[in-house]
Write a structure and sequence with these properties.
The protein is mainly alpha-helical and about 300 residues long. The chain has a single domain, classed as Farnesyl Diphosphate Synthase, CATH 1.10.600.10. The protein has 14 helices and two strands. A two-stranded parallel ribbon has the order 1-2. The chain is globular and about 50 Å long.
Amino acid sequence: MTATPDAALGRADQALARQGRSFHWARMFLSSRHAARATRLYGFCRGLDDLADDAGAASDPRDALDQIRAALLIGRSADAGIADGIELFRECSISPQIPNALLDGLISDLGVVRMQDSGELLRYAYRVAGTVGLMMCGALDVKHPAALPHAIDLGIAMQLTNICRDVTEDARARRCYLPANLIGGAEPAQLILPDDVLQARIRDTVRDLLELADQFYASGEAGLSFLPLRARFGILVAARVYRAIGTRLRRENFSTWTGRVFVSDASKVWITVGAFFTLPFNRTFWRPLPHQAALHAALNGLPGAHAQP
């Protein structure tokens, strides 16, 4: 029996509350229509991400992801979550090439993962998170093509933050996203309980990546005014809450091996209040700034990376 859209939304909402608490908090500031769409999009992306992360349990995760690619091509699926995602893409005029790029990124996560340099890392971050920013533009009824590079950048910034926070967790899954030209030839297993020399390299690398993330966060905020007014505040809060993870990592001296950092509910409240009371002085909330093309030097040829104004 085919699940109803309400049932798909309900499952996505449960996943968001359980696994995406920062986004769950920020969602309350969206309109009901945009909140529902954002939740459905999260449910679709979470389902794909879980497939890639559970590679050890699935008989053939690559085959499962390829089947989803085929479903996107024909525009239908027997899986309720995928079918709802396809319907959302149709409803919001989201090109199938965007979720297909997301699938490319997730497939690259299967097996042992290495990043040779920052350019390769940024292309990966585009695929697994910049694409989500592009799809959110559709979900939030953003029509101006100049908004797309800013949306990509906010997704990339959040993914870089994730990578810095989850160095140890990723290493346990045989993944090292820290670029080899920064971290050296360390194997993922070495990142779990690093020796003193490697600890210093990890700290320096995480510091550099968080500084890079800050550039992408700034670019993401520079495009806020392309969004509907109410959505601007919701996305601003989500960005500020996620950026606070990097602030916590700095306070912990970038010691990724001592435990996973998080942003407390009390901190989320303060971040939200601070964002609200600084709005009159936040120029990008009211008027966009030009996109810095140099941020996308590594993204040539990827959809939306160089949208024309």
